[in-house]
Amino acid sequence: GTVFLANWDDGVRAYSYNGSSFSNTAHISDGGEALGVAVGSDGTVFLANSLDGLRAYSYDGNSFSN
Questions:
Q1: Domain hosting residue 34, numbered range
Q2: What phi, psi does 25 have (nearest 5°)?
Q3: Do residues 10 and 28 touch, judged by C-beta distance below 8 A?
Q4: How far apart are CA 1 and CA 53, in angstroms?
Q5: pTM
Q6: What does the CA dihedral 18, 40, 26, 55 come to, rounded to 10 degrees?
Q7: Which class for 45: exposed (0-12), middle (13-18), buried (19 or more C-beta within 10 A)?
Q8: DSSP for 14-43, written as a single string
Q9: How far apart are the C-alpha atoms of 16 and 54, rounded to whole Å?
Q10: Alpha-carbon distance 9 to 40, whole Å?
Q11: Predicted confidence (pLDDT) per residue in 11-25, tens digit
Q12: How many domains does the chain have?
């Protein structure tokens, strides 16, 4: 599976989990202070940013795009 991490001044990161360890698979900097992350039913990754609100990203398993 995939875990998304809001990483304060480093944007959002995606990690894959193979049952025993995590691997960083993607990263995108949002230029602000990432506070929280959620995933919509369509797979959209939403990132809450304390400086300018909410951002939405697509994630294809390898990278983010907006």
A1: 2-65
A2: -105, -25
A3: no
A4: 27
A5: 0.89
A6: -160
A7: buried
A8: EEEE-SS-EEEEEEE--SS-EEEEEE-TTS
A9: 24
A10: 23
A11: 999 999 999 999 999
A12: 1
